[in-house]
Write a structure and sequence with these properties.
Elements (H helix, E strand, L loop, with lengths): L3 E7 L2 H16 L5 E6 L5 H10 L2 E4 L8 H8 L4 H7 L9 E5 L3 E3 L13 E4 L7 E8 L3 H14 L6 H8 L3 H4 L11 E2 H6 L1 H7 L5 E3 L10 E3 L4 E3 L10 H23 L50 H9 L11 H12 L1
Parallel strand pairs: 1-2, 1-4, 2-3, 8-9
Antiparallel strand pairs: 4-7, 5-9, 6-7, 10-11
Helix pairs in contact: 1-2, 1-10, 2-10, 3-5
The structure holds manganese (II) ion.
Length: 348
């Protein structure tokens, strides 16, 4: 099945960790399809190297360098940068059919049967079930579809600010046209759904095949104690992630991904998130009231249920390094609002 592939997207090193775990989970469950990771220009070299070991193909998508319609579209709508990057998956025309999976998903069993479905197949979004959730979908790469998507995006924008809005506008008859294009919910199970209908989760949850860590808190935002095999900073707040799936993610990360990362980073410090490894050279930064997860905008309305994150994601040393490399997190923790708030606190 060399002409079919699972495709994911990582726009920064955090999402790259997600992509590594997703890729490993697909391999563990013995997929017969190729694995493709699209990466943005902010993914650093060691992370790219690790992805290259897990994926058959790692493709850099730098829209600013591209000479196609997406470049022009990006000039007009810089706010839709991540969305355009994701839509780029339609240009993978050396594959006849693909399954896109967000980097914040995890497979729990083999899901190769998804390739029996047609474009565009996806599961309902738990927030508005007449919309599909764009975290997992089946599609057919086509330059023509790609051009049409970019055109729609540039002309009409996105009703939720991300790719999910654009894709639902484009495949607008999904809700009613063909039930075969409705993936069962077990192919895109999110924590929000678990807690909003717990009896259904108790009845059907064991059938889950794909977990989607929807929302602002992602598995990599927590830390993990490898000795006790426990995730730190996880509360029982219903808006947070389901503890069993979170543990599963960390089990794969600490069990197989971390050693690959250590090898690639060498003596270079990086934030592992694992507490027994002593790779961290600095303590995490003091808690700043901020929204540092704005980098994932594609879920739009689904994210309104979440609470502020309890745990910092990168060490202050790593943050400083990023600043010095010109990679400030302008949309998140280094946003102008946060800098202004910090300055205000000094002036008061
Ligand atoms: Mn997602």
């Amino acid at each position: 099945m060399a002409d079919q592939a699972f495709v994911t997207l990582a726009t920064n090193d955090n999402y790259a960790k997600g992509a590594m775990v997703l890729g490993r989970s697909l391999r563990t469950h013995k997929t017969s399809r190729n694995l493709v990771a699209l990466i943005g220009p902010h993914v650093t070299e060691p992370a790219r190297e690790v992805l290259q070991k897990i994926y058959d193909e790692v493709r850099l998508v730098d829209l600013l360098d591209s000479k196609d319609s997406a470049h022009l579209a990006l000039m007009k709508r810089p706010d839709l940068g991540v969305t355009f990057t994701k839509l780029h998956c339609w240009t993978l025309t050396h594959y006849s059919k693909c399954v896109f999976m967000d980097a914040d998903t995890l497979v729990l069993s083999n899901v190769d049967e998804l390739f029996d479905r047609e474009e565009l197949s996806a599961a309902p979004d738990p927030g508005w079930p007449d919309c599909f959730n764009s975290g997992v979908f089946v599609f057919r790469p086509s330059n023509e579809t790609y051009r049409q998507l970019i055109r729609l995006c540039t002309e009409d924008g996105s009703f939720d600010g991300g790719d999910q809005g654009v894709l639902n506008s484009f495949f607008s008859n999904w809700a009613t046209a063909d039930i075969a294009k409705h993936l069962p919910f077990i192919y895109n199970l999110s924590s929000i759904a678990i807690y909003s209908y717990l009896p259904a989760f108790k009845q059907y949850g064991s059938d889950a095949k794909v977990v989607h860590f929807l929302g602002k808190m992602k598995p990599w935002n927590y830390s993990y104690d490898a000795k006790t095999k426990s995730v730190k900073g996880h509360s029982q707040d219903p808006s947070t992630l389901h503890p069993d799936y979170l543990l599963k993610w960390w089990d794969i990360y600490s069990g197989t991904v971390l050693s690959m990362m250590k090898e690639q980073y060498g003596s270079q410090p990086f934030y592992s998130g694992c507490e027994d490894t002593f790779i961290e050279t600095a303590s995490p930064p003091p808690a700043v009231t901020c929204d540092r997860y704005k980098d994932e905008i594609h879920h739009g309305v689904s994210q309104i249920h979440v609470s502020p994150p309890p745990a910092p994601t990168i060490s202050s040393e790593e943050r400083k390094q990023k600043w010095e490399q010109g990679q400030a997190d302008y949309m998140g923790m280094d946003s102008f609002e946060n800098i202004q708030r910090k300055l205000d606190s000094f002036l008061n």
